[in-house]
Design goal:
This protein is 17% helix and 19% strand. By secondary structure, the protein is an alpha/beta fold. The strands form 3 sheets. A 7-stranded mixed β-sheet has the order 8-7-6-5-4-3-16. Strands 9-10-11-12-13-14-15 form a 7-stranded mixed β-sheet. Strands 1-2 form a two-stranded antiparallel ribbon. The protein has one domain: Metallo-beta-lactamase, Chain A (4-Layer Sandwich).
């Protein structure tokens, strides 16, 4: 608790954003009614999303020196950099929910199980929402003796689930740690936290910055538009790769999730070279079509200084991969 109280983000028993942020709860029931009664044809794909299944033997014993990313769906991914391998925001269960029988359900199964995970050098979490922090996945991973790197307070959830204290490492914004030759910084985000009715903003949320000897990678976590992008870009950019939350946006929570247009501005502020969009294509969490983030970003990137990449779920994307990455989601929209 002392570490929480010493944080500049902690005030009156709660964490807060640097930029004043409205997280609307008054419109929650209105949104739920719209969600349950809307007649969108494209709530979920009408064709099967292509998935590249993975097992432990598909990964090299020594992780890649240049960045290599495996998107596992939504905001979950494996990142290799400087011969280290990290698992970020792993949600491998069927639902992103406090219940296993109701709540947002995956369009497709995760491409890899916890049991088939390769050797990992750490698990990194951006915040405690159910679509980023999956209790069953965490419990199973913890039994492998892995270390978890978390924003302030998030370790309290894992401790309740039985994860040993010496496996938990919490950080405030702008704090950092080293894993081998990879320098990892806990960086700002504009969001909120809570897994129940009474714990709103009891834990911190964050983005993460990974600095290798020759390459730099940024992961946004969940965030709205913020001046923090420029601050991160100035301090740590340019970034060879950004993994950006672009999806599940809505006018009712416009300050805590990025719209595609905002993600494009953030990419410029971060001085990002390649963007892989995350937080879409796996769960139906908003009122836009499942493919809308991808199509809007494609248009926004046409004359940009950066490029988009859309690896298939489970498919490796590397720094040396060709610029003509196929946009696999387009084939699913053809009649």
């Amino acid at each position: 608790m002392i570490r929480l109280k010493n944080s500049e983000q902690f005030e009156n028993g709660k964490f807060k954003n640097t930029t004043q942020t409205q997280v609307s709860t008054g419109s929650l029931w209105k949104v739920m009614k719209e969600y349950l009664t809307d007649n969108r044809r494209f709530k979920k794909p009408e064709k099967v999303i292509p998935v590249h299944p993975l097992k432990a033997s598909d990964f090299s014993k020594v992780p890649s020196m240049e960045y290599k990313v495996y998107w596992l769906g939504h905001s979950s991914f494996i990142l290799e950099l400087n011969h280290k391998r990290f698992l970020i925001d792993p949600v491998l269960s069927e639902r992103a929910s406090m219940f296993d029988w109701v709540g947002p359900k995956r369009f497709i199964k995760a491409p890899v199980s916890v049991e088939e995970m390769p050797a990992l050098d750490g698990v990194i979490i951006s915040h405690d929402h159910y679509d980023h922090l999956d209790k069953q996945t965490i419990i199973t991973l913890s039994q492998k003796g892995l270390h978890f790197y978390l924003p302030l307070g998030v370790g309290s959830h894992l401790a309740r689930w039985g994860v040993a204290a010496d496996q938990l490492h919490e950080f405030d914004w702008w704090q950092s740690f080293q894993v081998g030759n990879v320098e990892i910084h806990c960086t700002p985000a504009r969001h909120f936290s809570g897994r129940g009715i009474l714990d709103r903003n009891a834990t911190l949320w964050a983005s993460w910055t990974f600095i290798g000897e020759t390459q730099r990678v940024f992961y946004s976590g969940d965030t709205g538009m913020m001046p923090g992008f420029e601050a991160i870009g100035k301090r740590f950019g340019p970034f060879d790769l950004t993994l950006m939350q672009v999806g599940a946006y809505d006018k009712n929570w416009s300050e805590i999730h990025l719209f595609p247009e905002e993600a494009a501005v953030a990419q410029e502020a971060l001085q990002g070279k390649v963007m892989i969009p995350l937080h879409w294509g796996t769960f139906d969490l908003a009122l836009h079509d499942w493919f809308e983030p991808a199509t809007k970003l494609e248009n926004l990137s046409q004359n940009a200084s950066w490029r988009l990449a859309f690896p298939k779920i489970g498919e490796a994307f590397t720094a040396s991969r060709s610029n003509d990455t196929p946009y696999w989601w387009k084939a699913l929209l053809e009649e």
